[in-house]
Design a protein that fits this description.
75% helix; 0% strand; globular; Four Helix Bundle (Hemerythrin (Met), subunit A); mainly alpha
Length: 203
């Protein structure tokens, strides 16, 4: 009788489905961002496929005849974005070492550098002298650089939230995912721009 009553008590202790199985090696936020980045790589891959089709398969001129790309301006923008990766990394290191001033300065500097990059890119579009519908090359150029610019815009929003939270004292050495996860996304944006700059502007 006693064993039966104990079994009944244990049967009523748990209600609902069992808890979800979680890996002890990879945290959910980190894994989610990695999976998202993988999907974004495939998205960029579709645009690069069109780019290489024009240049390698069709052997069309790049850029289109009568058009010119501002390689020097894009080079300056590349340097800005690369430096923003350093400030982002510095911000994360400061967060891990309880250096709140450095973390805030790093996040704010990264945001301002990213904003400068996007402003220069928009100004570049204004003065290019050709539109996306003028040529196939123009369509691909605006498609690739515009897609990257959209990712920079998303990254700026993530950085804005992280910066606001940092100034409100939300992060510490133990709780800094709000800095690390946007940082992973920002490094992806920077790395993707190097590929875009190298193929679209330089090659």
């Amino acid at each position: 009788m006693e064993s039966a009553s104990v079994a009944v008590e244990h049967a009523h202790e748990h209600h609902g489905p069992p808890p979800a199985n979680r890996s002890s090696r990879v945290e959910a936020q980190f894994l989610g961002m990695l999976l998202f980045i993988i999907s974004e790589v495939m998205l960029f891959g579709a645009f690069f496929t069109a780019y290489f089709f024009i240049r390698v398969v069709n052997h069309d001129h790049w850029p289109a005849p009568g058009t010119k790309l501002p390689v020097a301006v894009a080079g300056v923008n590349t340097a800005i974005l690369l430096f923003s990766s350093l400030t982002m990394h510095w911000s994360l290191l400061c967060a891990k070492n309880e250096n709140r001033w450095g973390m805030r300065a790093g996040l704010l500097t990264t945001f301002l550098l990213g904003l400068s990059f996007l402003t220069i890119q928009i100004n570049e579009y204004v003065h290019l002298g050709f539109a996306p519908h003028d040529t196939a090359q123009g369509t691909i150029f605006y498609g690739l650089t515009g897609l990257h610019g959209a990712h920079v815009f998303v990254g700026l929003n993530l950085l804005a939230f992280s910066t606001i939270r940092a100034f409100r004292g939300h992060f510490s050495a133990k709780e800094h995912r709000g800095v690390e996860v946007p940082g992973i996304y920002w490094h992806f944006v920077d790395a993707m721009w190097i590929i875009v700059y190298s193929t679209v502007y330089v090659l």
